[in-house]
Amino acid sequence: MSLQSTQSGDGSRTAPPVTVLGVPFDLGADRHGVDMGPSAIRYGGLSAALDAAGVDYADAGDLAVPTLRTRADEATDESDAKHLDGVAEMTETLADRVDRALGEGTVPLVLGGDHSIAMGTMRGAARAGPLGVVWFDAHGDYNTPTSSPSGNVHGMPLAAAHGYGDFAEMPWATASNVVEENTVIVGARSLDRDEQAVLRDSDMSVFTMSDIDSRGIGPVVEEALDIATDGVDGVHVSLDLDWLDPEDAPGVGTPVPGGVTYREAHTAMERVADRDAAESALRSLDVVEVNPVLDTRNETGEKAASLAATALGKQIL
Fold first, then answer.
1. What's the pLDDT score for residue 68?
2. Which of 28, 178, 190, 258 is geometrically suited to a Cys-Cys bond with 154, CB 3.0 to 4.6 A?
3. What percentage of the chain carries pLDDT values higher than 70?
4. What's the CA gap between 175 and 166, in Å, rounded?
5. Is 213 a catalytic residue?
6. Residue 266 annotated among the catalytic residues of the structure
7. Is 139 annotated as a binding residue?
8. Residue 201 annotated as part of some ligand binding site
9. Is the per-residue pLDDT at 105 higher than 90?
């Protein structure tokens, strides 16, 4: 299902309205503070940025999700993945809410929280039909409970969506309409050895930072969008703020040197918005891994807010 834009009286495009959903979730990560990400993004000027973009939006507040306090029974987890029951609960709750937002004719903008929340966003968005994915991230996020060196589920959401490995036995985690051939990782620069082997053998496409360095951000993102939209009518875009270089986005839990610049990130989101304007391609968007505890004067929260608005159509001119 694609959300169709309409034409205003002067012939210009009117984008579908947006539902903002906060997911203050940190059980998928190993550093506290990312649960405050939704607040940091809002405080960083999200409303003003969406207003400047001319986006018709409603902020539905934060979802009630499990926390470490409410999941004290998981101090000893039988799984190799930490807090997996809590992640499952969050995934089901968020998937239902994303599905509802789409049913109301809106584009869900989901504010994280750690990157495990994308499991819920993709699961909900995929209920509307085959879904392409563009994953802007320093990491591959293709570990499983068995292969993960850390056990942190924020390094597993793409594997979960595809039902890879251990996740084949976890129906709550999979999103059957997330198409492997239409899944693209952009800007990878830190992959675990097991991830490297799996990604090489998969039908996914991976563009590394070397590809961006040699070809430029614009052409790489255009090709990624071509792949993600081929044969499907909806795309989920996931923006992990650790995709940016730590000099530009210090407030993240797993920083990796050598990322894209803030300007390059804006160019990427502009290409997303351009493609959506041409094809009504964007079904859902999540912005994740902002950790204000690690940030400097909410610099990362402000940039996350601006980048989200750009993906939804904010223009310089």
1. 77
2. 28
3. 91
4. 14
5. no
6. no
7. yes
8. no
9. yes
Instruction: Summarize the chain as % helix, strand, coil (round to 5).
Output: 40, 20, 40
270-274: long-range contacts, CB 8 A cutoff, minimum separation 24: 270/310, 270/315, 271/218, 271/221, 271/222, 271/225, 272/134, 272/221, 272/225, 272/237, 272/311, 273/310, 273/311, 273/312, 273/313, 273/314, 273/315
Q: Is 137 annotated as a binding residue?
A: yes
Instruction: Give the pLDDT confidence score for residue 316 in this predicted structure.
Output: 67
| Residue 240, annotated as binding a ligand | yes
Q: How far apart are CA 150 and CA 137, in angstroms?
A: 18
The whole-number pLDDT of residue 121 equals 98
User: What residue ranges define each of the domains in the chain, with the CATH number in brackets?
Assistant: 15-311 (3.40.800.10)
pTM: predicted TM-score of the whole model, two decimal places: 0.94
Alpha-carbon span 273 to 287, nearest angstrom:
15
Q: Is 289 a catalytic residue?
A: yes
- 192 catalytically annotated: no
**Which residue in the list 89, 276, 289, 295 is annotated as catalytic?**
289
Q: So what's the pLDDT on residue 75?
A: 45
* Residue ranges with strand state E in the chain: 6-7, 13-14, 18-23, 57-62, 107-112, 131-136, 178-188, 205-208, 235-240, 282-288
For the ranges 9-13, 66-70, 177-181, the one whose mean pLDDT is highest:
177-181
Cα–Cα distance between 299 and 250 in angstroms, integer? 8
% of the chain beyond a pLDDT of 90:
87
Name the average pLDDT for the chain: 93
Catalytic residue flag (residue 83) = no
Tokens of 287: 């912005």
Active-site residue flag, 137: yes
- Reference 178, options 166, 160, 165; nearest CA is 160
Name the catalytic one among 26, 83, 99, 115: 115
Specify the pLDDT at position 9: 39
